Amino acid sequence: MSDTLPIAAKWWDLREEEPGLHIGFEPHMFRWSRANALLIKGSTHDLVVDTGCSISPFRTAIAHLIDKPIILFTTHCHRDHVGGHSDFADSEILVHAAEADDLRHPPKSSLRFSDAKPSSIEKWKQVGINTDGAMIDALPYAGFDIDAYSYKGVEPTRIVGEGDIVDIGSRVFEVLHLPGHSPGCIALWEAATGTLISGDAIYDGHISDHSPYSDIPTYIRTMERLRDLPVRRVHGGHRDSFGRARMIEIIDDYLASRRPRIAT
Ligand SMILES: [Zn+2]
Fold first, then answer.
1. Hey, which of 38, 81, 187, 223 would disulfide with 50, CB 3.0 to 4.6 Å?
2. Which residues surround ligand 1, an ion (CB under 5 A)?
3. Can you give the residue range of the structural domain that contains 116?
4. Is residue 109 part of a domain?
5. 253 C-alpha to center of ligand 1: Å?
């Protein structure tokens, strides 16, 4: 199967979204697992937020931009956000207490749809995804072995939660605990600019609250909280960044679809 896939010219698609704020994603990864990884340049530290699946290491993709000690912030521990964390074992690694053990001891992982839970395979089939092959449509390099893929655990150096500060010199972020998608979802909030680095708490796409680790009543409270926050710009865990008006639309759509369920 592996040898029938083309070799990607470049694994990471990396762009400078705003001055000093770079966003990368893996275009050849299955679209539901195609998460954003960020690099935010500060005057004292380089702040990395998540690492995607890192089928080819995110660290290698940003190496030319790094010239300070690295702080790696973990929005949550789903595979598509922590796949490359073990490449940062020499850095400061931040995670919420509720998911620290998931970072240390990740579950077994595979790039084959057929290795997923039957319920997931069924869901993919229903929306027309061909589940016979791999979750990548190109190889990062010649000889890459799809079946040898796994990602490693890593020891966090700092447990963070609501109200903690992440200071990179020229920018200062506050940690917000935004559970619902998963128990340890955390975000970075920069009040001075109205910037929210939100992970999977909110992004411009179908909001995922159906995993065994999700909790809808908790998610509703998170969305209500975000609605009241003076956000100007959101850099989400998936897809494109967006502004306040779009954020309110996403929140209101979510609340309209979920509140009635809770009320009954
Ligand atoms: Zn997630």
1. 81
2. 78, 200
3. 2-173+186-199+230-242
4. yes
5. 19
214 assigned to some structural domain: no
Ligand 1 centroid, distance to 181 Cα (angstroms) = 7
Q: How far is the CA of 79 from the centre of ligand 1 (A)?
A: 8
CA atoms within 13 A on the CB side of 150: 7
**Per-residue confidence (pLDDT) for residue 2, from 0 to 100:** 43
Ligand 1 mean position to 203 CA, how many Å?
Answer: 11
pLDDT averaged over 10-residue windows placed end to end, the chain, 264 residues: 80 98 97 95 98 97 98 97 98 98 94 90 87 93 92 97 98 98 98 98 92 91 98 98 98 92 64
In a domain, residue 257? The reply is no
Spatial distance between the Cα atoms of 111 and 109, rounded to a whole number of angstroms = 7
pTM value? 0.95
The CA distance from 215 to 198, in Å, is: 17
**CA 174 from centroid of its chain's CA atoms:** 18
Structure tokens at 237: 């865990």
H-helix or E-strand spanning residue 46: strand 46-49
Assign 3-state DSSP to the chain and report helix, strand, coil percentages, each to 5. Answer: 30, 25, 45
Cα–Cα dist 244/238, whole Å: 17
Look at the chain and report how many structural domains it folds into: 1
